[in-house]
Amino acid sequence: QVHLVESGGGLVQAGGSLRLSCAASGDIFTINAMGWYRQAPGKQRELVATITNDGNTNYADSVKGRFTISRDNAKIAVYLQMNSLKPEDTAVYYCHTEPYYRNWNDYWGQGTQVTVSS
Predict the structure, then answer these.
(1) pLDDT computed for residue 57 by the predictor
(2) Is the distance from CB of 81 to CB of 15 less than 8 angstroms?
(3) Contacts by 51-57 with C-beta closer than 8 Å and gap 24+?
(4) Given the DSSP bridges, would you call strands 10-13 and 31-39 parallel, antiparallel or unpaired?
(5) Cβ atoms within 10 Å of 54's Cβ, excluding its own
(6) d(C-alpha 72, C-alpha 81), whole Å
(7) pLDDT surpassing 90 at residue 107
(8) Are 31 and 97 spatial neighbours (Cβ–Cβ below 8 Å)?
(9) pLDDT at 26 over 90
(10) Number of C-beta neighbours around residue 89 at 10 A
(11) What is the mean pLDDT of the chain?
(12) Beta-bridge mates of residue 68
């Protein structure tokens, strides 16, 4: 089991910034990549950004140039710095872990609400 604890969501005006944090504990040896997904009301959950153990990153086109994902391997934590926020970034943001092997489990955090007002 991997336990994920997220923090950092909130309400911000358009153009503002927020930083999300996610700390992992438990069977951390299973984790290859960590990342963030988001789900807006009435929409499917979508990828925001991921980062592998060796620092390779991947971003959704909609957040490139505005969001930065980073990772602290010593703390087994992942961060999402969100700048130039837009109302369409409003969603519940979920931390996610991707395992090394497909037959191992992936894990999700409980989600943190990000609301961007116009």
Answers:
(1) 97
(2) no
(3) 51/78
(4) unpaired
(5) 9
(6) 14
(7) yes
(8) yes
(9) yes
(10) 22
(11) 96
(12) 81
Three-state secondary structure of the chain:
CEEEEEECCEEEECCCCEEEEEEEEECHHHEEEEEEEEECCCCCCEEEEEEECCCCEEECCCCCCCEEEEEECCCCEEEEEECCCCHHHCEEEEEEEEECCCCCCCEECCCEEEEEEC
Could you tell me how far CA 111 lies from the centroid of its own chain?
9
Q: So what's the pLDDT on residue 75? A: 83
Tokens found for residue 75: 């703390």
The 10s digit of each residue's pLDDT in 44-96 is 999 999 999 899 999 999 999 999 999 998 889 999 999 999 999 999 999 99
Q: What is the C-alpha separation between 49 and 109, in angstroms, rounded?
A: 15
Q: What is the dihedral of CA 100, 102, 107, 111, to 10 degrees?
A: 100
Give Cα separations from 102 to 4, 9, 32, 87, 93 (angstroms).
19, 30, 11, 35, 23
Q: Is residue 88 classed exposed, middle or buried when 0-12, 13-18 and 19+ CB atoms within 10 A define those classes?
A: exposed
Main-chain phi, psi angles of 89, to 5 degrees: -80, -5
